[in-house]
Structure formats: C-alpha cells, structure tokens
Design the sequence.
C-alpha cells in the first residue's frame, strides 16, 4: 500500500559533529517513504564528505551545496523548492527525531483534518543527556499570537507550502516563528502532547551566539506584522499578544515599554477569568 512522501530539509553549516546522529534518526523512522534534502551552506569542515557518504548508501538522501553562504531562511527555501513530498518538515544537524515521529505526525494531520501539526520535544545537552522537556497544549492557537509555541518538531502539508510560500529572509533568527504565524492565521492546526524530538543545547548553536536584544527586536517586528492576519482578537488572545510584546521589550532592555499598561490590564483578565478558574477545576477534580 502506497504511503504519502515526506520531504525533510536539512540546512547545514559546519555540522560535522552531530550530523550523523541527526541523519540516523531519520533513517531509523518506522515511516520509510521519505526524502532527505541536505543543503550545505558553504561549510568549511567535513560536512560535504559525511553527506556524500550517506548519499551513496541511501537513494532517498539528496545533497546540494550553496555557491555562497545564504544563511538559514534562503537555504530552507532552496531545499523546499527541490522537494517533492506531500508532507514537509525541516530539522537541524544537531537535533534528533524520536522513533515513530513521522508516523505519528502524519496520523495526527489526517485524523484531525489539519494542515499543520507540532509536537512536544525534550532538550538535551552536548552529550545527549536529558535536560527538560517542552510540552504542547491546545492553547497554542491563542498563544501563537505573542509566543512561538511550535518549537522544534512540526510537519505541514504541501498545500501550506504552496499557499504560504517561502520563509522570509528579512526575519533571520525568527524566520520560523514568522512562518508559523502565517500558517496559524490561515489553516487548521493540531498538536501532539507526546515528546517526538530532541533539541540540543550547545555553545555553537545559532541561538546561543546571537544577542538576545537583536532576536527580540526582530520578534517584536514579526508579531506586529502578523497581528492583522488574525482579525478581531478575544481577550485571551490579547493577553498573549501583549505578554509577548512586553516580554520582547523586557529582553531588549528597553527603557520605554509601550505595551506595559495593556499587558497589566489583560494579565488581570487572565488571572481572574482563566488561571484562577482552571486552578479551582483542578482542585475539585482531586
């Protein structure tokens, strides 16, 4: 029985240290109808040699090299332009899919008539040792307006790609969050609470080497740009919107936080009409 094709894009720059683990986690999936598109962004280490080694062993793996360093968004766009899959995702050279991740995400998309799915993931250190986990929940459709709830494990249909288009290279560092916002505003999304991915924290990771104020400045811009796509917001969405904008300003170390007053107003709403009632419900269940 034929199964739908999954395209996985692996953008990589000097990823020789962990890339074997990342690729092996794809090869070991129970869902076997996939193509892996490795795009080398002008690495200076042994990335090319390792990639070509896998290409020779597995015809599902394709390898391309950029003529010049293009950075992440443009490299992702090149990879997806070469893809043929019915379902799409991308990963990093230092991260790992858990066994069964592809099968469970495809099932979630089909069973929920959804075009985008995101799953819980764990964080690991340089040696692969467990640190913590980040769990998804159904509030994500509200939280997304001000916070990147998607994280590191996700999959979407080709229809999403054909509608939303490319990742925006103007938002390097938060290009993924911008893309998720564009998806959530137009498509049905679903989540998986099970941990299906391992996200590695280490000193060489991109997010570890960029200044927090720069990241949050771009994040604020992305939130404001996508806000109109969600139309009229309810009070819960407004809480997440202003809490996200307020957090951006705090992490940017800005003296003037123009979102502070609205954040306080909607924080009060959230406390009185959401957080407290939910705590009461939990107590009554016990």
Sequence:
């Amino acid at each position: 029985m034929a199964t739908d094709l999954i395209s996985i894009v692996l953008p990589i720059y000097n990823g020789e240290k962990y890339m074997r683990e990342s690729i092996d986690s794809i090869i070991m999936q129970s869902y076997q109808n996939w193509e892996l598109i490795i795009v080398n962004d002008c690495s200076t280490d042994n990335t090319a040699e390792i990639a070509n080694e896998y290409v020779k062993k597995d015809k599902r793996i394709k390898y391309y090299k950029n003529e010049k360093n293009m950075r992440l968004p443009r490299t992702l766009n090149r990879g997806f332009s070469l893809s043929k899959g019915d379902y799409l995702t991308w990963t990093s050279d230092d991260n790992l899919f858990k066994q069964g991740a592809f099968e469970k995400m495809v099932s979630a998309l089909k069973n929920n008539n959804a075009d985008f799915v995101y799953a819980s993931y764990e964080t690991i250190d340089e040696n692969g040792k467990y640190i913590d986990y980040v769990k998804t929940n159904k509030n994500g459709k509200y939280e997304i307006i001000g916070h990147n709830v998607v994280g590191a494990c996700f999959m979407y249909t080709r229809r999403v790609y054909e509608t939303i288009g490319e990742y925006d290279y103007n938002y390097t560092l938060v290009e993924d969050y911008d893309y998720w916002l564009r998806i959530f505003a137009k498509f049905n999304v679903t989540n998986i609470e099970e941990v299906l991915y391992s996200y590695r924290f280490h000193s060489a990771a991109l997010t570890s080497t960029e200044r927090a104020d720069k990241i949050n400045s771009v994040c604020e811009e992305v939130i404001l740009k996508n806000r109109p796509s969600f139309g009229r917001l309810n009070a819960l969405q407004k809480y997440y919107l202003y809490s996200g904008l307020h957090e951006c300003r705090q992490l940017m170390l800005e003296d003037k936080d123009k979102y502070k007053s609205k954040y306080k107003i909607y924080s009060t709403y959230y406390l009185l009409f959401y957080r407290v009632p939910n705590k009461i419900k939990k107590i009554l269940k016990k």
